[in-house]
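Appendix B, Record 12. Input sequence as logged:
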Amino acid sequence: MSCPLARPAVLRRTMSNMQDKPLTFAVPKGRLLDEALPLMASAGIVPDAEFHDKKSRALSFACEGSDTRIIRVRAFDVATFVAHGAAQVGIVGSDVVEEFSYRDLYAPVDLNIGHCRLSVAAPVEGKVSNGASHLRIASKYPNLTRRHFEAQGVQAEVVKLNGAMELAPSLGLASRIVDLVSTGRTLKENGLEETTVILDISARLIVNRAALKTDDRLGALIDQFRAAAAGTEAAGAV
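Logged structural output:
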Protein backbone atom coordinates (compact mmCIF):
# COMPACT_ATOMS: atom_id res chain seq x y z
CA MET A 1 0.00 0.00 0.00
CA SER A 2 1.50 3.36 -1.04
CA CYS A 3 2.30 6.05 1.47
CA PRO A 4 0.17 9.22 0.99
CA LEU A 5 3.30 11.37 1.43
CA ALA A 6 5.25 9.59 -1.31
CA ARG A 7 3.74 11.46 -4.25
CA PRO A 8 4.46 14.98 -2.94
CA ALA A 9 8.02 13.87 -2.17
CA VAL A 10 8.47 12.58 -5.72
CA LEU A 11 7.00 15.82 -7.07
CA ARG A 12 9.43 17.87 -4.98
CA ARG A 13 12.35 15.83 -6.32
CA THR A 14 11.08 16.25 -9.90
CA MET A 15 10.79 20.03 -9.47
CA SER A 16 14.27 20.14 -7.97
CA ASN A 17 15.71 18.18 -10.92
CA MET A 18 13.97 20.44 -13.42
CA GLN A 19 15.36 23.56 -11.80
CA ASP A 20 18.91 22.20 -11.98
CA LYS A 21 18.66 22.53 -15.77
CA PRO A 22 18.68 25.78 -17.76
CA LEU A 23 15.35 27.08 -19.01
CA THR A 24 15.14 27.14 -22.80
CA PHE A 25 13.41 30.23 -24.19
CA ALA A 26 12.36 30.13 -27.87
CA VAL A 27 12.10 33.39 -29.80
CA PRO A 28 11.13 34.08 -33.44
CA LYS A 29 13.39 35.62 -36.03
CA GLY A 30 12.45 38.94 -37.59
CA ARG A 31 10.54 42.07 -36.65
CA LEU A 32 8.66 40.57 -33.71
CA LEU A 33 11.96 39.74 -32.02
CA ASP A 34 13.07 43.37 -32.32
CA GLU A 35 9.91 44.44 -30.49
CA ALA A 36 10.25 41.68 -27.91
CA LEU A 37 13.85 42.35 -26.83
CA PRO A 38 13.08 45.41 -24.63
CA LEU A 39 10.23 43.51 -22.99
CA MET A 40 12.48 40.51 -22.40
CA ALA A 41 15.09 42.77 -20.80
CA SER A 42 12.44 44.20 -18.47
CA ALA A 43 11.61 40.63 -17.44
CA GLY A 44 15.29 39.81 -16.80
CA ILE A 45 15.98 37.88 -20.03
CA VAL A 46 19.00 39.52 -21.68
CA PRO A 47 20.80 37.56 -24.45
CA ASP A 48 24.60 37.64 -24.55
CA ALA A 49 26.69 39.62 -27.04
CA GLU A 50 26.87 36.79 -29.60
CA PHE A 51 23.10 36.98 -30.02
CA HIS A 52 23.49 40.47 -31.53
CA ASP A 53 26.42 39.50 -33.80
CA LYS A 54 25.04 39.71 -37.35
CA LYS A 55 27.77 37.34 -38.60
CA SER A 56 26.97 34.60 -36.12
CA ARG A 57 25.11 31.56 -37.39
CA ALA A 58 24.51 30.17 -33.92
CA LEU A 59 20.95 29.28 -32.99
CA SER A 60 21.40 28.90 -29.22
CA PHE A 61 22.64 31.64 -26.90
CA ALA A 62 23.34 32.17 -23.23
CA CYS A 63 21.69 34.93 -21.18
CA GLU A 64 23.49 37.46 -19.02
CA GLY A 65 23.22 36.69 -15.29
CA SER A 66 20.61 33.96 -15.85
CA ASP A 67 20.35 30.18 -16.13
CA THR A 68 18.20 30.66 -19.24
CA ARG A 69 19.36 29.94 -22.77
CA ILE A 70 17.69 31.39 -25.87
CA ILE A 71 17.04 29.57 -29.13
CA ARG A 72 16.22 31.65 -32.21
CA VAL A 73 14.00 29.83 -34.72
CA ARG A 74 11.16 30.41 -37.19
CA ALA A 75 7.89 31.63 -35.66
CA PHE A 76 5.96 28.43 -36.37
CA ASP A 77 8.81 26.40 -34.86
CA VAL A 78 8.64 28.37 -31.60
CA ALA A 79 5.24 26.84 -30.89
CA THR A 80 6.46 23.35 -31.84
CA PHE A 81 9.52 23.49 -29.59
CA VAL A 82 7.47 24.70 -26.63
CA ALA A 83 4.51 22.37 -27.16
CA HIS A 84 6.79 19.32 -27.25
CA GLY A 85 8.83 20.45 -24.24
CA ALA A 86 12.12 20.99 -26.08
CA ALA A 87 11.77 24.60 -24.91
CA GLN A 88 9.80 25.50 -21.81
CA VAL A 89 8.83 29.05 -22.74
CA GLY A 90 8.72 31.29 -25.80
CA ILE A 91 7.28 34.30 -27.59
CA VAL A 92 5.15 34.02 -30.70
CA GLY A 93 2.21 35.70 -32.41
CA SER A 94 -1.32 34.66 -31.48
CA ASP A 95 -1.79 33.65 -35.14
CA VAL A 96 0.62 30.75 -34.59
CA VAL A 97 -1.06 29.78 -31.31
CA GLU A 98 -4.48 29.71 -33.00
CA GLU A 99 -3.25 27.92 -36.12
CA PHE A 100 -1.83 24.94 -34.25
CA SER A 101 -4.00 24.84 -31.10
CA TYR A 102 -1.48 22.60 -29.36
CA ARG A 103 -3.02 20.97 -26.28
CA ASP A 104 0.26 21.27 -24.33
CA LEU A 105 0.65 24.98 -25.06
CA TYR A 106 -0.48 27.68 -22.62
CA ALA A 107 -0.48 31.38 -23.55
CA PRO A 108 -0.89 33.26 -20.24
CA VAL A 109 0.31 36.75 -21.24
CA ASP A 110 -0.67 39.09 -24.07
CA LEU A 111 2.55 41.07 -24.55
CA ASN A 112 0.82 43.94 -26.38
CA ILE A 113 3.43 43.99 -29.17
CA GLY A 114 3.57 42.66 -32.73
CA HIS A 115 0.13 43.98 -33.60
CA CYS A 116 -1.24 43.07 -37.03
CA ARG A 117 -4.17 41.06 -38.41
CA LEU A 118 -4.84 37.91 -40.37
CA SER A 119 -7.05 38.83 -43.31
CA VAL A 120 -8.59 37.63 -46.53
CA ALA A 121 -7.50 39.61 -49.59
CA ALA A 122 -8.72 39.46 -53.18
CA PRO A 123 -7.86 41.19 -56.47
CA VAL A 124 -9.26 44.69 -56.75
CA GLU A 125 -10.47 43.75 -60.24
CA GLY A 126 -12.36 40.55 -60.96
CA LYS A 127 -13.14 39.46 -57.40
CA VAL A 128 -14.88 36.13 -56.96
CA SER A 129 -18.57 36.36 -56.13
CA ASN A 130 -19.38 36.19 -52.43
CA GLY A 131 -21.92 33.49 -53.26
CA ALA A 132 -19.27 30.94 -54.28
CA SER A 133 -19.49 27.59 -52.43
CA HIS A 134 -15.91 26.56 -53.21
CA LEU A 135 -12.80 28.74 -53.25
CA ARG A 136 -9.12 28.10 -53.74
CA ILE A 137 -7.13 30.11 -51.19
CA ALA A 138 -3.36 30.58 -50.92
CA SER A 139 -2.13 30.76 -47.33
CA LYS A 140 0.38 29.45 -44.82
CA TYR A 141 -2.51 29.17 -42.35
CA PRO A 142 -4.53 26.20 -43.66
CA ASN A 143 -6.35 25.49 -40.38
CA LEU A 144 -7.45 29.06 -39.67
CA THR A 145 -8.38 29.53 -43.32
CA ARG A 146 -10.56 26.42 -43.47
CA ARG A 147 -12.25 27.22 -40.17
CA HIS A 148 -13.06 30.76 -41.29
CA PHE A 149 -14.62 29.73 -44.60
CA GLU A 150 -16.39 26.66 -43.18
CA ALA A 151 -18.17 28.98 -40.75
CA GLN A 152 -19.57 30.75 -43.82
CA GLY A 153 -20.59 27.52 -45.51
CA VAL A 154 -17.76 27.74 -48.05
CA GLN A 155 -15.41 24.86 -48.86
CA ALA A 156 -11.86 26.22 -48.93
CA GLU A 157 -9.18 24.41 -50.91
CA VAL A 158 -5.99 25.76 -49.33
CA VAL A 159 -2.79 25.97 -51.37
CA LYS A 160 0.04 26.08 -48.81
CA LEU A 161 2.56 28.84 -49.49
CA ASN A 162 5.19 30.19 -47.11
CA GLY A 163 5.85 33.44 -48.93
CA ALA A 164 5.10 35.57 -52.03
CA MET A 165 1.41 35.04 -51.26
CA GLU A 166 0.41 38.15 -53.21
CA LEU A 167 1.45 36.55 -56.51
CA ALA A 168 -1.04 33.69 -56.25
CA PRO A 169 -4.16 35.48 -57.64
CA SER A 170 -2.36 37.16 -60.56
CA LEU A 171 -0.80 33.84 -61.64
CA GLY A 172 -4.04 31.90 -61.34
CA LEU A 173 -2.92 29.76 -58.42
CA ALA A 174 -5.74 30.95 -56.14
CA SER A 175 -8.60 33.42 -56.24
CA ARG A 176 -7.85 34.87 -52.81
CA ILE A 177 -5.18 34.83 -50.16
CA VAL A 178 -5.16 34.71 -46.37
CA ASP A 179 -2.12 36.42 -44.91
CA LEU A 180 -0.84 38.80 -42.24
CA VAL A 181 -1.58 42.45 -42.86
CA SER A 182 -0.06 45.43 -41.12
CA THR A 183 -0.35 48.57 -43.26
CA GLY A 184 -1.85 46.96 -46.37
CA ARG A 185 0.79 48.54 -48.59
CA THR A 186 2.08 45.23 -50.00
CA LEU A 187 -1.45 44.19 -50.92
CA LYS A 188 -2.10 47.47 -52.71
CA GLU A 189 1.17 47.28 -54.65
CA ASN A 190 0.16 43.85 -55.92
CA GLY A 191 -3.37 44.75 -56.97
CA LEU A 192 -5.11 43.24 -53.93
CA GLU A 193 -7.39 44.62 -51.28
CA GLU A 194 -8.29 43.42 -47.80
CA THR A 195 -11.85 42.09 -47.70
CA THR A 196 -12.26 40.42 -44.31
CA VAL A 197 -10.34 40.40 -41.03
CA ILE A 198 -10.18 36.87 -39.62
CA LEU A 199 -8.12 37.54 -36.49
CA ASP A 200 -6.53 40.50 -34.70
CA ILE A 201 -3.04 39.46 -33.65
CA SER A 202 -0.56 40.32 -30.93
CA ALA A 203 2.45 38.52 -29.46
CA ARG A 204 1.98 36.10 -26.57
CA LEU A 205 4.21 34.56 -23.96
CA ILE A 206 3.74 30.80 -24.29
CA VAL A 207 4.77 28.04 -21.89
CA ASN A 208 4.71 24.27 -21.86
CA ARG A 209 1.87 23.12 -19.56
CA ALA A 210 3.75 20.15 -18.10
CA ALA A 211 6.83 22.26 -17.38
CA LEU A 212 4.68 24.91 -15.68
CA LYS A 213 3.49 22.30 -13.19
CA THR A 214 6.99 21.07 -12.33
CA ASP A 215 9.20 24.17 -12.50
CA ASP A 216 8.61 27.12 -10.18
CA ARG A 217 10.77 29.37 -12.37
CA LEU A 218 8.08 29.49 -15.04
CA GLY A 219 5.45 30.90 -12.70
CA ALA A 220 7.87 33.62 -11.64
CA LEU A 221 8.77 34.34 -15.27
CA ILE A 222 5.10 34.68 -16.21
CA ASP A 223 4.67 37.25 -13.43
CA GLN A 224 7.74 39.17 -14.66
CA PHE A 225 6.45 39.29 -18.24
CA ARG A 226 2.97 40.23 -17.09
CA ALA A 227 4.45 43.17 -15.18
CA ALA A 228 6.67 44.16 -18.13
CA ALA A 229 3.71 44.05 -20.55
CA ALA A 230 1.59 46.12 -18.16
CA GLY A 231 4.39 48.67 -17.96
CA THR A 232 4.60 48.89 -21.73
CA GLU A 233 0.84 49.38 -22.01
CA ALA A 234 0.87 52.08 -19.33
CA ALA A 235 3.74 53.90 -21.07
CA GLY A 236 1.86 53.78 -24.38
CA ALA A 237 -1.22 55.30 -22.77
CA VAL A 238 0.67 58.35 -21.52
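The CA atoms of residues 50 and 56 lie 7 Å apart.
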